Amino acid sequence: MTLIPAPSRCAPGQGLFTFTAATPLTADPVLARAAAWLRQALTSATGLPLLDGPGGVEIRHAVGLGPEEYRLTATTESVLIEASAQAGAFYGAQTLRQLLDPAAFRAGRTGDRTWSIPAIEIADAPTYGWRGCLIDVARHFLPKNDLLRYIDLLAAHKLNVLHLHLTDDQGWRLEIRKYPKLTEIGAWRRESPLGARRHRLFDGRPHGGFYSQDDIREIVSYAADRSVTVLPEIDLPGHTQAAVAAYPELGNLGVPLGVRTEWGVGENVINVSDETITFFTDVLDEVLELFPGEYICVGGDETPKTQWNESLPAKERIRELGLRDADELQTWLMRHFTDYLLARGRKPLGWDELLEGGLPPGVTVGAWRGDRCASMAARAGHDVVVSPFAETYLDFRQAEGDQEPVPIGSVTSLRAVHAFDPVPHGLTGEERSRILGAQAALWTEHIDSPRLLDYMAFPRLAAFAEAMWSAERDFEDFRVRLAVHEKRLDALGVEYRPATGPHPWQRRPDAPGHPRSRAEIDSQLAEWTSNLRP
């Protein structure tokens, strides 16, 4: 039901319901935000005010439906959306907009027309509860208004989690009042690579930006009105060079560092002193004030142990704690932060490298290195959000050939994304229940503008959204419906990839990539996970 009502979930009726200037809308107070959104969206596009009152279009509270479930019934006389919670009402409202002419997705009127929908009955609910998208704003900053636009795009596809990767070696994007240098220094780098790092090309342009705390409050509120939860990520203990550049005492080398200007995994990680632990606990104190959602991501990924293995204080910490090695030291450090979150009623999310030293209790695992990691975490009794490198990373190229902008990774085609199943084979029923859902990822090392972000995201993100919403999928049917959906994307101003390949202005001959085969990717994944102990 992501793009337009699927035949298996719809019962068509007879005739049309036609919107007029007098079309009223009523809503239960629990569902008021969905009603307000629908009124604003349709009034802007149609010029027809939706007024409070009985009859016409009604959003009504109904018992017995799940929080994201809805029923939509349209006759020649009225439209009724029934839901038990804000999310279900909002998704019903989105489906109503999808049933209208694609011009309903525009921000203003384009002329006089008759606005009508077919008489129809729809009963709908998602297959997975976690339907997310990660946007990396650390590598390339996405200005606030562009991020708000993306929240609208996620919501239009009934995705419900925006994972914001806020910190990394190449930039710190969140204002922290207690530590202002994190953004005064850490939010800016002097230049960025131009294309894949193997080419050793740089653009020579400073890059930066950050979100103020009021920006974040606005973003979180805006998302909540659209049934999207914003999940923040403060990456620890690796991917922290921007923080160390701002506060050198957090590092292991005792020398000043700049914000990292290269992509890839850097060896500069934070130290394990009590003062550094206090520093990041203070950071998380402010993060919890800003993000009210259940989950907070604390990273745990791609942490080279070189500096810890050479650091006398780190070695002493390992000895004092009776740990075997630096992998267990990372687990000890991350357990401090996960215990901190659990004590405050939040759920910590960490990447699957945490398996290497033993998962801290209560951690939800972001499984990005394939089914093996997802299965191990689920069998160990941990909830899992699946985001596999080779299937859901939308920064990977979309087709063979050199026409794709900054082609990296293997080909992640529209068909493959639509066929994606987040549940690994071989799990028991109890273990399968641990798979909360999945999220696509837009890592932005090579995505340096909102226009390119559109190109890499769409239409693959639409295919991913349908895969997470609908249990039964037919790619050929999806392609037929996609032709209509592209008209909606056009109305929204989304610069998606055409089926025939990129427009000339979507190509990037100035930024060479590093395309790889799927066999190479699979071999790399096997190497990365070879040290995992069942």
Task: Characterize the structure shown.
The protein is built from 18 helices and 21 strands. It has 534 residues and is α/β, with parallel strands linked by helices. An eight-stranded parallel β-barrel has the order 8-9-14-15-16-17-18-20, surrounded by six helices. Strands 1-7-5-6-4-2-3 form a seven-stranded mixed β-sheet, covered by helices on one side. The protein has a two-stranded antiparallel sheet with strand order 10-11. α1 (32-46) packs parallel to α2 and α3 packs parallel to α5 (213-224). The longest helix is centred in the middle third of the chain and has 18 residues, at 326-343. The two termini are 39 Å apart. InterPro entries: Beta_hexosaminidase_sua/sub, GH, Glyco_hydro_20_cat, Hex-like_dom2, HEX_bac_N. Keywords: Glycosidase, Hydrolase.
Count every helix, treating DSSP H or I runs of 4 or more residues as helices.
18
Which segments are poorly predicted (pLDDT under 50) over 5 or more consecutive residues? 5-9
User: What kind of sheet is the major sheet?
Assistant: 8 strands, parallel, barrel
Q: Overall pLDDT, averaged?
A: 93
Radius of gyration: 24 Å
Give the N-to-C terminal Cα separation. 39 Å
Biggest sheet strand order reads 8-9-14-15-16-17-18-20
What oligomeric arrangement do these chains adopt?
single chain
β-strand amount = 15-25%
The beta-strand count equals 21
Globally, the shape reads: globular
Roughly how much helix do the residues carry, as a percent range? 25-40%
- Which structural category fits the helices and strands? alpha/beta
